[in-house]
């Protein structure tokens, strides 16, 4: 059914390689792998509607169109932080007829 309010954000994830325990044991410094998890959640049900994992150099606004296109459900409004206050994000919201609640 219809989603009244979608909340969008991302978080950084640190992945540890198979040798991570060796680093702790022997004190060697190893580079960790970072990724970004982008989520769109229904504010009423707390259901994850869309999710995407990207490289850490992909901005929130660059990931937004692909994230929002994952669902074909009607969305009335979407909230996000200032990282999504770009022409790219607003154009995608306008195209899908979603009210933008971005500061």
Automatic annotation (TrEMBL):
InterPro entries: Tn903_transposase, Transposase_11. Pfam families: DDE_Tnp_1. One of its GO terms (biological process) is DNA transposition. GO terms for molecular function: DNA binding; transposase activity. Residues 4-103 form the Transposase IS4-like domain. Coiled coil: none annotated. It comes from the Bacteria. This is Transposase. It comes from Escherichia coli.
């Amino acid at each position: 059914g219809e989603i009244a309010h979608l909340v969008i954000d991302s978080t950084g994830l640190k992945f540890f390689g198979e040798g991570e325990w060796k680093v702790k044991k022997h004190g060697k410094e190893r580079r960790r792998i970072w990724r970004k998890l982008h989520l769109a959640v229904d504010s009423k049900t707390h259901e994850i509607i869309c999710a995407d994992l990207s490289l850490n150099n992909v901005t929130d606004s660059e990931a937004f169109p692909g994230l929002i296109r994952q669902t074909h459900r009607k969305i009335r409004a979407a909230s996000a932080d200032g990282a999504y206050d770009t022409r790219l994000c607003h154009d995608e919201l306008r195209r899908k007829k979603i009210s933008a609640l971005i500061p």
